[in-house]
Amino acid sequence: MFKLFKFAALALTLVPSLLATEPAPGADEAKPEEVQYEIIGETAAVQHKEALEETIRLFWQKTVEGDLTSIYGMYVESYRKAVPLKDFIGLNRGEVSDVELDKIWMWGDGCAYVKIYHAMKTEFMEFPRFPTRQRWVWNEDKWQLYQESAVGGFVIAPKSKKVQEPCPLPEKLRSKVKKKPAKAAGDTSAAKEKGETAAKVK
């Protein structure tokens, strides 16, 4: 019995070491997902493509960590002048997670439009992953985030609170609102159809 117990103890000691294998080189390193790129016209911004990806990933890493002081310094100067650091830190935010850099459009001397997916959790509810879009500008040998509004990050704001726009969007990136075709004068087809339906009900 003693020999059996001794053998079992020896097996428990040896098996983990026998099963253990050396991890493959770089196995623990997180590989960033491949990002889609679209170049619009002739642009000098492409030469700073790698720096842009690094900056965006750093911005969102600091966002997930809640390091607001670091990400504040990554905004364009005009935004920082309009929004003091203490006000920026005081803005209501949720906890960001599950960030994915999806696509980057580049144009001009140093303009980039970026699409990111991320999830968010607030005090009251959780939001599944949804898209967020950002505009980045190459300025003073680095990429900086352009925020249109100085009011809490919301796009809708009075003109007095708008930040100067350094990189207007190309036409193909501007959202287009689909307008309903106007009804021709004297078109009574809808009214006629409504009257026929009412007659059938009677």
From TrEMBL:
Residues 190-202 have a biased composition (Basic and acidic residues). It comes from the Bacteria. Residues 162-202 are annotated as: Disordered. Keywords: Signal. Residues 1-20 form the signal peptide. This is DUF4440 domain-containing protein.
